[in-house]
Design brief:
This protein is α+β, with helices and mostly antiparallel strands. It contains 4 helices and 6 strands, in the order αβββαββααβ. The protein is globular and about 50 Å long. The chain starts with 8 loop residues before the first helix and ends with a strand. It has 2 domains: 43 residues; 103 residues, 2-Layer Sandwich (GMP Synthetase, Chain A, domain 3), CATH 3.30.300. The strands form 2 sheets. The protein has a 3-stranded antiparallel β-sheet, with no helix packed on it.
């Protein structure tokens, strides 16, 4: 089965909808070149110069946080459509607090490294009640947020409505 493709009906049966995602990384020093398997996408992963990198691209946590906010926004578009909400714009800001002790070798591992996740989402074109409902559903369905929730991170999410004149 190709990466990023759905399993066939016979593979999937009546069970969950499973999709496989894969990537490869090649590095000999900085930066690391990452390719998303079975796609045309490639990107660099690097670290700032002060951390020993070449500063040619975002570090892995930047990519992770961008994936999280992108997943939330994408999920919000889908859920708003399912609910019949006419969300004209969705602005999401996110912060992920990370304990780097394991990464830096101060402790033996990075278990429980995700401390806190804070979301502030503002949706234009819907009511405050609709924004709350949208946020609750999006937060429950986003698989990347699910990873953070499972890690034990404290999740604080705020979804509000903005109705400009």
């Amino acid at each position: 089965m190709k990466a990023g493709t759905d399993m066939s009906e016979t593979e999937q049966g009546s069970g969950p909808h499973i999709e496989v995602f894969a990537a490869t990384a090649k590095g000999s020093g900085w930066p690391t070149a990452v390719s998303i398997s079975e796609s045309e996408w490639t990107f660099s992963v690097d670290e700032p110069i002060e951390d020993g990198g070449s500063n040619t691209g975002p570090n892995p946590m930047h990519h992770f946080v961008a994936s999280l906010v992108g997943c939330q926004n994408e999920q919000a578009q889908v859920v708003a459509e399912e609910l019949g909400f006419e969300a004209k714009q969705i602005d999401i800001k996110v912060e992920v607090e990370l304990n780097l002790d394991g990464f830096m070798g101060i402790t033996a591992d990075s278990k429980d490294c995700f401390q806190r996740v804070g979301f502030n989402a503002c949706v234009t074109g819907i009511t405050a009640d609709q924004a709350t409902e949208l946020g609750n559903r999006v937060d429950a369905r986003c698989p990347i947020l699910s990873l953070l929730r499972s890690s034990g991170a404290i999740i604080k999410s705020s979804w509000t409505a903005s109705n400009p004149n």
